[in-house]
């Protein structure tokens, strides 16, 4: 199992709803996604990001397919417009 975690720090915290809604559409459009969970931060601390994505894939190949899928790339482009930065961790479980 491959775990893919992304943390998002947005320029404007009001963009959280827009990003969350865009991400929530992906599992219905990309069959390689095994599990998909989005979390919105309630802490608001200095070190906190605004939201996180926890997803799993059955193989590294499925993660690669997801990464270049046109629907994923649309969301990535939208996020680039509103994100201060993103951080990613991928690991094998």
Q: Mind explaining what this structure looks like?
A:
The structure is a single chain. By secondary structure, this protein is an alpha+beta fold. The protein has one domain: Alpha-Beta Plaits, CATH 3.30.70.100. Helices cover 38% and strands 37% of the residues. The protein is built from four helices and four strands; from the N terminus they run E-H-H-E-E-H-H-E. Strands 2-3-1-4 form a four-stranded antiparallel β-sheet. It is globular and about 35 Å long. The mean pLDDT is 97.
The unreliable regions are none
Number of domains: 1
| CA-atom Rg in angstroms | 13 Å
Helix content: 25-40%
Spatial strand arrangement across the major sheet: 2-3-1-4
CATH structural class:
Alpha Beta
SSE succession: EHHEEHHE
Shape: globular
The CATH architecture:
2-Layer Sandwich
Q: Report the biggest beta sheet as strand number plus sense, adding barrel if it closes.
A: 4 strands, antiparallel
Q: Treating each run of at least 4 consecutive H or I residues as one helix, how many helices?
A: 4
Number of strands: 4
Determine the CATH topology: Alpha-Beta Plaits
Relevant terms:
single chain; 93 residues; alpha+beta; Alpha-Beta Plaits; four-stranded antiparallel β-sheet; 4 helices; globular
Quick overview:
It is built from four helices and four strands; from the N terminus they run βααββααβ. The protein has helices at residues 16-24, 26-29, 60-68, 70-82, and strands at 2-10, 33-40, 51-57, 83-92.
Give the SSE layout:
Elements: E1 2-10, H1 16-24, H2 26-29, E2 33-40, E3 51-57, H3 60-68, H4 70-82, E4 83-92
Antiparallel strand pairs: 1-3, 1-4, 2-3
